Amino acid sequence: MQINRLFEIVYLLLDKKRVTAGKLAGWFGVSRRTICRDIDALSMAGIPIYTERGKGGGIRLLPEFVLNKSMLSEGEQDEILSALHGVASIKAGDADQVLRKLSSIFNKPATDWMKVDFAGWSHENDYFNDFKTAISERRIVVFDYYNQYGEKAARRIKPIQVWFKSRAWYLKGYCLAKREMRLYKVSRIKNLTVTNETFDECDVRAVPETQDYQSYEGQHTVEIKLRIAPEKAYRVFDDFYESMVEKQSDGSFIVTVSWPEDDWLYGFLLSFGEHMEVLEPERIRAAIKEEAQKISKKY
Predict the structure, then answer these.
(1) C-alpha distances in angstroms, 30 versus 16, 65, 211?
(2) Top-tier CATH class for 221-298
(3) For domain 1-61, which architecture applies?
(4) Which residue has the higher pLDDT, 168 or 80?
């Protein structure tokens, strides 16, 4: 919506001091003409914004301009404080200090509503603060990456986002080797280093999306129908949404899901042991039978 874009333009100018219309257009995915209309709208609203032509020019705010808290409603102030507390919960940068300052400005306490710990129980691969640093400071990262076949490759990435999707964390960024936007599963990232080499985020965000992120790193999903015994009822409600589950008269559950077919899927299904049966498709049913026979031979 335009009102959200207008606020973001003001915040960007407060942070960056001077930005060209072209970079703002790339950032928001709109035309330069739209940005010019936004600048006119801000000027008419009383925001001291102006443009400078020529080399070194761009869009600026008057140096003495300060964003007044009265521009934000009570609800918006609460949302800002809640969001900042979420950032502070992962110990990211100076979020705690900013949170205290804004709480004082808004004259209201910040509710301690969230605790986030990205590290696993083993505390390996705890790269999230590195991701935050690299993304916020627009610094290239390098790391070793293992694909689904266990093959290792060195990667140089311009990171822009961290994603959480289908029980897994991903790093989204522009791959300098592949020259396209990619998703990298965090659990497969090793030996990550945040370099001192910087990049222009507007240029990265202007790159067209070529990967189908709905297919989980290029893998196609398969619809699977399962029967799960009553003994594993707790797993059913832990691992599946209610809309996927049909409880049967004998206490068992019929579950229908669409997931990517890979080693994780087979391991997950086998973790139910004798209490789970694959009903469809026949190909997955046969694959689980084969894996179970391989396990049996080891014992």
Answers:
(1) 20, 26, 22
(2) alpha beta
(3) Orthogonal Bundle (1.10)
(4) 168
